[in-house]
Amino acid sequence: MWSEQGELRWTTSSDTEHLGSLTARFAPYIAQARAGHSQSVTFDRDGQQLEVYFTALHAPDGNPAGVASVILNIAEHRQLDAAEHQEIENTLRHRLAFQDIITRLSTQFASVLATQVDEALQAALGVLGSFTQVDRVYIFRFSADGMAMDNTHEWCAEGIEPQIDNLQGLTLESMPWLSARLRHREIVNAADIFELPDEAATEKEVLAAQDIQSVLLIPLIDESSVVGFIGFDSVRRAKSWPEEDIVLLRIAGEIFVRAIQRALAERDKRQLEAQLVQARSMESLARLAGGVAHDFNNLLAIILNYAKILERELSEPDHRTMVRELFATAKRAADLTRQLLLMGRRDVVTPVVLNLNEVIQSLDHLLHQMVGERIELQCVLARDLAPTKVGIPQIEQVIVNLAINARDAMPQGGVLTIATSNETIDQAYALRYIDVNQGEYVRLQVSDTGVGMTPEVASRAFEPFFSTKGDAGTGLGLSTVHGIVKQAGGHIELNSQLGRGTTMDIYLPVASATLESQQAPLHPEEDAAQSTSYRGNGELILVVEDAAPLRRLVCRMLEKAGYQVVEAISPDDAIVLVEQHGVRADLLLTDVIMPQMSGPDLAQRLMSQGLAHVLYMSGYEAAMVALRGVLQDDQHLLQKPFLEEELLRAVKRALTDAPERSSTSPNTTH
Ligand code: ADP
Ligand code: MG
After folding, report:
1. Whose CA is nearest to atom 17 of ligand 1?
2. From ligand 2's centre to the CA of 43, what distance in Å?
3. pTM above 0.70, yes or no
4. Which long-range contacts (CB under 8 A, 24 or more apart) does 569-575 make?
5. For position 6, what pLDDT does the model report?
6. Å from CA of 186 to ligand 2 middle
7. Whose atoms come closest to the Cα of 497: which ligand?
């Protein structure tokens, strides 16, 4: 055997004498063999006729890894009997065939797809097992922390009992001797397991329990560490391994490790890619849904507002009831679209620093009512829960949606647990997800003991409109939860087992600000909006809005509240009214995004004509956000859609505000 040290040794013959001095002499033949041309040389040593065969040995990458040589004593050779002759020939043949197998495995694994590595490994174990005539061949892989191991692949000869199911999650600690050998990259080669040292008592016991007579374990070595091992058991008869076979099996081990590591790397990459694709498709679906919801919501606002006006004006009780029903239904539709908007993140949310426990406690009554009597509601709230920053209606929506799903999953009753805790997301965890940062989080855990989900359902659960509930489901519950949590910079983990139940872990980043300084009241007193207090005194309001139904509605509401109104269907129209017809409005109420000119530009122009107050109305978050930056506060912004009292309150506030603050000029911001 031509070893890596460049030393020629006997390896098959019982004579292990070194042939170091001959190395130089054989160099040309070795070089030829290395280049793929097998060589045969006869020479004379101390009157003995010797014949040497040289043949190339290939490494996994296909390059020659060394040269195998067989040295025959021709004089002895000639005296060999037929049986001995046969044996030598068999050995040679075995070695060449084995080498051939390894070369083939090397080529095959070099091109195997990551998804087919498992299959290929399985097949390879079979090939090695049948060829070496053992009873069982297997691969164990160590866990990432190196503390445990799993039997991942197994091949058994016919009539041999598979063991793979019994060999999962073993701790390395339970077999200290063996673990130490493998960790030191040593091969364990026991032709008779009872000859293992005394320290290997446990190992002996385990092997004996499986009727194993001989065992060979070869560590699987990745660049830096031992990641597992390949094992060969002989059950029916003892087996001692020739050195060259072990060398070849080591090469097989290297081939396997490389394939396994590549498959793992590719799997991680694929998972990240899948997450990215899903995140993107969620985004675009959400945007689409949000777009529809936005327009729909404006229509609903008009229906709602007219219903309110009608209800007040009708005297017939029957009619009033019907209109009230109309209002209630439109309100439900608006709630539904609110969910869509949230999902599309078009809703303007005002996050506040809050203690999640308080939100859960405030919902306690509602949750009990929602889940009914068959379901036991348990709240396990962490003491000293860190504050988090999120919109209150949004986080309430999250809790309610999750609780509703839990209820639906437990028609026969069960336990719904809502728990909070402080958690740290470490780097290892964060790296597994594309959009999770490491750091401190508040965890909201909602778990049920319900029907659970199949992996297919679980993988689609967050998709907008995905529902397994037929007409009873909207498929918006979880996608809304997803939108809210993402908007708050959080992360969701779903764990579900069919028939066992589901756990949703919501991670929200810990807010850095202190609680007291920013905390808003949990349920701000709904401004008991007596429309009367927002009535006008004949002030003139110039309304600029291109959507006719909304414009008419707004004008009507303003007139009824005691204002005078002038309508403009566009900025140009408004400019004509002011500059040519001398309209002197006290307040400009304008849309923000309009075809010819933006609301702020219009305001700027009219201010030079003496206009003092402006109120913008918009349904676009982007517009609101952009304006908020310029205006410093929300005083002059009205989020569409709005109800009558919200409009009147905003108008009143804008009118009573100091005129110079209505300026949109950027240099007024400090
Ligand atoms: P909906 O509840 O309207 O069907 P969701 O978005 O809330 O829509 O949920 C989507 C789907 O996810 C449900 O139809 C159901 O199949 C599954 N699901 C959600 N939560 C649970 C849960 N706690 N247990 C079992 N399945 C659930
Ligand atoms: Mg739901």
Report:
1. 461
2. 86
3. no
4. 569/544, 569/545, 570/544, 570/546, 570/594, 570/595, 570/596, 571/544, 571/596, 571/597, 571/599, 571/601, 571/602, 572/596, 572/597, 573/544, 574/542, 574/544, 574/602, 574/606, 575/602, 575/605, 575/606
5. 39
6. 56
7. 1
